[in-house]
Amino acid sequence: MSDTIDTPSTGQKFTAEALGTFVLVFFGCGAAMRSGGDYVATGLTFGLTVVVMAYAVGRISGGHFNPAVTLGAVLGGRLPWNQVGIYFAAQLLGGLLAGAVLFGLNHGFEGFSAEGNMAQNFFGDQGTGFAWWAALLLEILMTAVFLWVILAVTDERNEVNVAMGPLAIGLALAMIHFASMSATGTSVNPARSIGVGVFAGTDAIVQLWLFVVAPLVGAAIAGLTYPVLFGHGTEPVAGSGLNFGGGRKGDQFVPGSYEAQWNQGQQHQQQGSWGQPGAAWGAPPQQQWGQPQPQPDPYSTPQAQPAPGQWGHPDTTQQAPQQPPSQPGQWGAPPAQQQPGQPGQSAPGAPGHWGNPDGDDDGRTQVRRPD
């Protein structure tokens, strides 16, 4: 694998966030409009769009598609403040473009009226009669839960496979819709609410404040409390959290995967057992936790080494060729001794076996003539 990582440019991040938010709002709100607000269809569509677009462009921008997610990432130490403006602008643009396209396409139905029919969020008399304070608290709670899930799934200490991150986040968004659609239409995303709300009439525009304030408050709560409750897991990015310095040049993340994107370039490639690079699960203890391999004592008396595959040899993973049990040099058989004056007595065992430090080149048994 090449050591060179192509760092996305600001324009690429902007495009990725705008495209992802567009797809989220267009398909999610479109499903709500065309299905008549069906819970399963709408909730799963919102969740699936997050999954699909996070897999598609998450390596570029992290796959936020939501100003609340961006705020939670910054306050949680995952992103510097100097990136917030780029993300917010891209997300709002994507949401508004999606709302405009839905507005235009639905006029293809004769007699369509956009007022109150754009899958906008609602509360009070304009919705199901849900009180404004209850709607505010519900959206704060739902957004906080959403951000806690996102921060946990993308935590570098999480042993879950990196590829499962977007799936968990998408399912979390779906379950949030199932629990709150009948009360507020489910926002947890200011870009989603603004994108269609501005086309849904005056009453919808007047109520937008709640669906901007509540998600941002919930995201702030989750972003600030996650490190307190569970720890950072990695050093916070300079210029993030409550440090408003904006970060230094070169502090931007270097993505390599969805999880690495969120952890500012903390790569997990070739990580083995217990976090040691290159080690494999089930590796011997001396290969874990960075312990060095034992070195021979230079002042000790050299001893003959068993052949690979025999008892006592350090490499027991390969099995030695089968040999007769009585052959000299194997475990359980004494080394052969040369007896002068006895014709036909075999020489010491093959090279590398017990009692034969030299041996002949081809390892064949030789007979020495008596002197």
UniProtKB/TrEMBL annotation:
Keywords recorded for this protein, A-Z: Cell membrane, Membrane, Transmembrane, Transmembrane helix, Transport
Presence of keyword Cell membrane: yes
Transmembrane segments: 14-33, 39-57, 84-105, 130-151, 163-184, 204-226
GO molecular function terms attached to this record: water channel activity
A Pfam family assignment: MIP
Biased segments, Basic and acidic residues type: 362-371
Signal peptide segment: none
Any single Gene Ontology cellular-component annotation: plasma membrane
InterPro entries: Aquaporin-like, Aquaporin_transptr, MIP, MIP_CS
Subcellular location: Cell membrane
SUPFAM superfamilies associated with the record: Aquaporin-like
Region annotated Disordered, chain positions: 262-371
Membrane-protein topology: Multi-pass membrane protein
Biased composition (Low complexity): 262-292, 328-351
Principal location listed in the UniProt entry: membrane
Keyword Cell cycle among UniProt keywords: no
Family: Belongs to the MIP/aquaporin (TC 1.A.8) family.
Annotated protein name in UniProt: MIP family channel protein
